[in-house]
Specification:
25% of the residues lie in helices and 31% in strands. By secondary structure, the protein is α+β, with helices and mostly antiparallel strands. The protein is elongated.
Length: 175
């Protein structure tokens, strides 16, 4: 599920999440960067226009993931320089990035989605990037586990395997 869990309280060996651990007795091992971007269908862009700057998003139907740490406050940067910080109203908010992707694919609006979820749609031209010259703060997909599991062979083997498969640029971000 998409919610933040406490592996200790819920009896999990490892949790995978994009949010920091909820307490100091948990260890976080970052596995890969999770980039996000705003995207829409070519048909939506043709009908409503392509936003040229972040503030233009306020005039569009937006679909946003409810779990992002930024909530309604969004920071857009170019390189190391922050270009805009603004609140974005959403027409749709969901805790499912897959539902948001489906929403965008219907040409109903612009969605902010992880590249992990939309890379195939972008490559196929079903979705196009919006404000591609701007970056959103990346998130980190991490393994979070209790400190007591640090030496557990099964936990170490799983994390080592995932780390070895996710070194460098994630495959979905290369294109």
């Amino acid at each position: 599920e998409d919610s933040v869990v406490d592996p200790i309280a819920e009896g999990f060996d490892v949790a995978f999440q994009i949010f920091p651990p909820i307490n100091d007795s948990l260890i976080e091992k970052r596995l890969f960067v999770l980039r996000r971007l705003f995207c829409a269908t070519p048909a939506y862009i043709e009908e409503f226009g392509l936003p040229q700057q972040p503030a233009d998003l306020q005039q569009h139907a937006l679909a946003l993931y409810s779990g992002y740490p930024s909530r309604k406050r969004w920071t857009f940067s170019q390189g190391a320089e922050i270009r805009a910080e603004l609140e974005l109203p959403e027409q749709m908010r969901s805790n499912s990035v897959h539902l948001l992707r489906d929403y965008a694919l219907t040409s109903a609006g612009i969605a902010c989605l992880p590249t992990l979820v939309v890379s195939e749609d972008l490559l196929a031209g079903r979705l196009v990037p919006v404000l591609a010259d701007y970056d959103l703060a990346p998130l980190h997909f991490s393994a979070v586990y209790p400190e007591t599991q640090r030496q557990a062979v099964k936990v170490r083997a799983l994390i080592d395997c995932l780390v070895s498969h996710h070194t460098g640029e994630p495959a979905w971000d290369v294109p």
